[in-house]
Amino acid sequence: MDEHDGPAVRFEAQRPHLRAVAYRMLGSPAEAEDAVQETWLRLQRTDVSDVENLTGWLTTVISRICLDLLRARSARPEDPVPELPEPDFPGRGGADPEQEALMAESVGRALLVVLGMLTPTERVAFVLHDLFGVPFDRIARIVDRSEVAAKKLASRARHRVRGTPAVPAVELARHRAVVDAFLTASRGGDLGALLAVLAPDVVRRADPAALPPGAAVESRGARVVAEETLVFGKRARFAEAALVNGSVGIVVAPCGRLRLALTVAIEGDRIAAYEVIADPARLAALDLAVLPA
């Protein structure tokens, strides 16, 4: 590809980049694709013969489209939440659940959840600068702020994404290993591995909204909790370790949208207790962040 190629050829070469930018800004494959198509339409209506950096021009256009979509989204109620007892968590708007799962995994479910908690301008500034290396002078023009203000937007977003661990780094890493082992065993349906990572007297508590009708809000004992976990093991494919109120916990986020959060108490190298939070008000009150790589 060179500067003599037509707009369609040059645009198609940029499509993967534009889709990646839009998905991280919007968290929805369908909406990201819509934003890419709108960018193409705007390119067709614009004379770009004098544009030296077409990639930069397209990135600016799609960022402004995404910013408008994020602002419109924040002004309307969120889509209804699917019933939690259904383990497959169907995708939204006819989207392919497998495609959504793969895209969410490529970015990180915890990151998508935390990005969704940012303001539209914070999200755009953070994604552009921290994830794609766009300089702040360009970001300032996109969000219609000064360069100093754009830097502050990204800084606030960065602090929210990283969070503040409540325990030292060594202990945080040890706790994460325990939680990751729990998730791996849950995804694989491995009863033996679950029993190995659960304390003999482990306690599981859950909001009623996270359970089938009539299910007990509290269970005790490793075998009871492990067998119960296997029943709903399909949910583990949508789960990822995250920083929950400063400690290692779990978010369950199909399509990158928070549905459940688990607070986890760890003693030694085993899980002593965990609580499944599904109540929207309780979820909104949680301090969520991304664990260090």
TrEMBL record:
Entry's Gene Ontology molecular function annotations: DNA binding; sigma factor activity
Signal peptide coordinates: none
Positions of the UniProt region annotated as Disordered: 76-97
UniProt-listed GO biological process terms: DNA-templated transcription initiation
Domain RNA polymerase sigma factor 70 region 4 type, residue spans: 110-158
SUPFAM superfamilies listed in its UniProt record: NTF2-like, Sigma2 domain of RNA polymerase sigma factors, Sigma3 and sigma4 domains of RNA polymerase sigma factors
Pfam families on file: Sigma70_r2, Sigma70_r4_2
Sequence ranges assigned to domain RNA polymerase sigma-70 region in this UniProt record: 11-74
Annotated keywords: Sigma factor, Transcription, Transcription regulation
Subunit structure comment from the entry: Interacts transiently with the RNA polymerase catalytic core formed by RpoA, RpoB, RpoC and RpoZ (2 alpha, 1 beta, 1 beta' and 1 omega subunit) to form the RNA polymerase holoenzyme that can initiate transcription.
Family: Belongs to the sigma-70 factor family. ECF subfamily.
Protein name: Sigma-70 family RNA polymerase sigma factor
